[in-house]
Amino acid sequence: MIYFDHAATTPVKQEVKKAMDPYFSDKWGNPSSIYGLGREAREAMCEARQTIMGILGAERPSEIIFTSGATESNNLALKGVAEAAAFEIGGPPHIIVSAIEHHCVLDTAKHLESSFGAEVTYLSVNEEGLVNPLDVEKAIKDNTVLVSVMLGNNEMGAIEPVKEISGVIKGEREKREKKGDKTPLYFHTDAVQAFAFMPVKVDELGVDMLSLTAHKFYGPKGVGLLYVRTGTKFAPQQKGGAQEKGRRAGTENVPYIVGMAKAMEMAEKNREAYSKKVGELTDYLVKRVKEIPKIELIGPKNKEKRLPHIANFLFKGVEGESILINLDMLGFAASSGSACTSGSLEPSHVTKAMGYSDLEAHGTVRFSLGELNKRSDIDELMKHLPGIIEKLRAMSPIKE
Amino acid sequence: MSDLYNEKVMDHFTNPRNVGVMKDADGVGEVGNPTCGDIMKLFIKVDKKNGEEVLSDITFQTLGCGAAIATSSYVTEMAKGMKLADAEKITNDAVAKELGGLPPIKMHCSNLAASALREAIKDYRSKS
User: Fold this and answer.
1) Whole-angstrom Cα distance, residue A211 to residue A101?
2) Is A396 helix (H, G, I), strand (E, B) or coil?
3) CA A165 to CA A173: how far, in whole Å?
4) pLDDT confidence of A346, banded at 50, 70, 90?
5) Given this model, what pLDDT does residue A132 score?
């Protein structure tokens, strides 16, 4: 198999697996236990947290909350802030999210709208998939408590202007402060796809909350984190024990937390070389796929505004699933839209938000490159892809 | 991905029968839904045998997912040689059933081939 789906998930690195291994059957204690075995687990977790703090530039260990992955982190960020703020402001809170967020942000926002009475603004993007920070400024209302805009998009790789949006939010906070208005306003970013490719420092980005998941950078699935800046008021969503300072009850997943820290450490160290290698491969892929007529690379035109591992192509007059099945039969793994929406009939909300029609949105295929790829994989792909597209186009009643 | 569909569906998807435009078609039927990403066009040729109208040829063109292409291909095979009156009774559900079933999510949007056939017959009748 040739794997072009690194944005969906990545394999666990041997070094990561090795780091995790002792915490399954040797040092298997519960980190909340008082005795030696528990202490051992607690220390491992503590060390992992320190490593992660350093990488993200967090100030206190309590700012890192371990979760089961980005879906939980994003749910926790939105629901947690909305709930705490509603209590504080005594009315419905307003939340701003971009229209191209992952479903775990969008569906949480929709849930807060329908079941919690929150007001939500879905920020539109331009045809390249970029949010305009001025639109954030315009969307902020007196009761806005949270803005959530992802750092890098998972479907077409747009790098969103998070720093600029943070500036807008700081300005608004100052205005509120001057008025003596105590309504909180926080900024959350989903940095899941971006982490392996760009420095993710919470102060430089100017964010109050940030979500990550380990399996996008060669760590294990089922573990992630939510960074929460000290002073950010949020209501825990999972009740029970006192783990994570009572903000995320449940026995911590020690081996996976250790694995995530190791994977982050390695990603941090290799970032520059990895980005360069993957970026060059993606450039080559784009160059080769463009040999096929009537295709379009969607997302930002300027390479600097695009994550280096993602290339999403619109194949005019063809449907994405048909391409994917044909590729799969030949041993190529790619996806249409996000991995989570393949097999659903809805055209990608991201492509649609960029102004493409339903039919066009159905004709997109995402290739995402990484460690497993080499140049010859792309040559191999190009032995088959033009034929697949030609065959499917010949079958189509739409000629354009 | 391939385990999304059974072998019979995959066979019709990978080797679709009767693909193409029919220049001298007696009837053309087009159905589809851009939201679902599936558009099907069916072309029919009708001959009279012993005073009865029979589908002597059918071809199709489809833009769509695996299910859309497979059901289009299958309905052309199913209906070829049938009396018009019988072909009209083929339902989308029957096509899916004969193909050994489709994923539930595909039943609504991508399973429109029989509707396309009925549209083509309607078109033929409106002309004759």
Assistant:
1) 12
2) coil
3) 12
4) confident
5) 98
* Local structure of A42: helix, strand or coil: helix
For chain A, what's the residue count? 400
Token pair of A93, please? 């809170």
Residues of A designated catalytic: 340
Give the Cα separation of A257 and A262 in Å (integer). 9
Do A397 and B13 count as a contact with CB atoms less than 8 A apart? Answer: no
Instruction: Please report the domains of chain A, with CATH numbers, ordered by start residue.
Output: 2-8+271-395 (3.90.1150.10), 14-265 (3.40.640.10)
Q: Which two tokens stand for residue A224?
A: 């992630």
For A81-98, write each residue's pLDDT tens digit. Answer: 999 999 889 899 999 999
Cα separation of B18 and A54, whole Å? Answer: 63
For the question of residue B109 being annotated catalytic, the response is yes
Residue B45 bridge partners (DSSP) = B57
Rounded to the nearest angstrom, the minimum Cα separation between B63 and chain A is 5
- Integer Rg of chain B from CA: 14
Helices (H) and strands (E) in chain A, counts: 13, 12
Q: Tell me the whole-structure pTM to 2 decimals.
A: 0.94
Spatial distance between the Cα atoms of B32 and B22, rounded to a whole number of angstroms: 19
What is the DSSP track for A170-233?
HHHHHHHHHHT-----EEEEE-TTTTTTS---HHHHT-SEEEEEGGGGTS-TT-EEEEE-TT--
Q: Do A359 and B34 touch (CB under 8 A)?
A: yes
Strands (E) located in chain A: 2-3, 64-67, 94-98, 119-123, 144-148, 186-190, 209-213, 224-228, 295-298, 310-315, 332-333, 364-368
* Residue A279 in tokens: 């970026």
**Strand ranges in chain B using DSSP code E only, listed in sequence order:** 27-33, 38-49, 52-63
In 3D space, the residue among A201, A213, A199, A101 whose CA is nearest the CA of residue A146 turns out to be A101
Closest partner residue to B2 among A317, A325, A357, by Cβ?
A325
The torsion angles phi and psi of A313, rounded to 5 degrees, stand at -105, 140
Backbone angles phi, psi at A234, to 5 degrees: -145, 150
ipTM of the prediction:
0.90
* Alpha-carbon span A50 to A55, nearest angstrom: 9
Tell me if B31 sits within 8 A of B115, measured CB to CB: yes
Average pLDDT, chain B: 91
Of A318, A395, A398, the CB nearest to B16: A395
